[in-house]
Amino acid sequence: MTEANFEFKQTKKGPVLVIELLGYLGKEGGIAFAAIIEKSLAGGNRKFGLDFRRVDVINSQGISVLLEVGSRICEDFGGALAVFGLSPHLKLILEISCFFSFATTAQGEAEALKALE
Q1: C-alpha to C-alpha distance for 47 and 26, rounded to whole angstroms
Q2: In the chain, where the domains are located
Q3: pLDDT tens digits for 41-79?
Q4: What are the distances in angstroms from CA 71 to CA 4, 11, 68, 89, 115?
Q5: DSSP of 49-91
Q6: Domain 3-115 in CATH 3.30.750.24
Q7: What angle (nearest 5°) sits at the alpha carbon of residue 62, between those of residues 25 and 27?
């Protein structure tokens, strides 16, 4: 699997922008993902839900991007971030990286949306 196998889909659900991440999140995918977040923040979005159900791999560069994005949303813009659909392995990696200092974890999309109310 290569980084070329990364994409994302965006859906606006009320005030929350839900982003479904698909594939391998590394440097290239991370750059594209961060650009979408920056554009969304500039457009006024402050609440984000990240769907990890279809993420296969996150490398160290992908983790770095997630930390940067979390910081931008929560610290720089006073926004909120909820994540759902994490495999036990990905959840552990994000716990170790302290990503959850920025994000709330949820069991599913409905719980994530409720956490962002």
Answers
A1: 23
A2: 3-115
A3: 999 999 999 999 999 899 999 999 999 999 999 999 999
A4: 26, 22, 5, 22, 18
A5: EEEEEEEEEE-HHHHHHHHHHHHIIIIIS--EEEEE---HHHH
A6: yes
A7: 80
Residues 6+ apart with CB under 8 A from 46: 15, 73, 77, 78, 79, 80
Residue 78 zone, left/alpha/beta (φ > 0; ψ -120 to 50; rest): left
Q: What is the spatial distance between Cα 54 and Cα 22, in angstroms, rounded to a whole number?
A: 5
| Alpha-carbon dihedral angle through residues 82, 115, 108, 39, given to the nearest 10 degrees | -40
Report pTM.
0.93
Q: Is 36 helix (H, G, I), strand (E, B) or coil?
A: helix
Residue 17 pLDDT greater than 80, yes or no: yes
60 within 8 A of 28, measured Cβ to Cβ: no
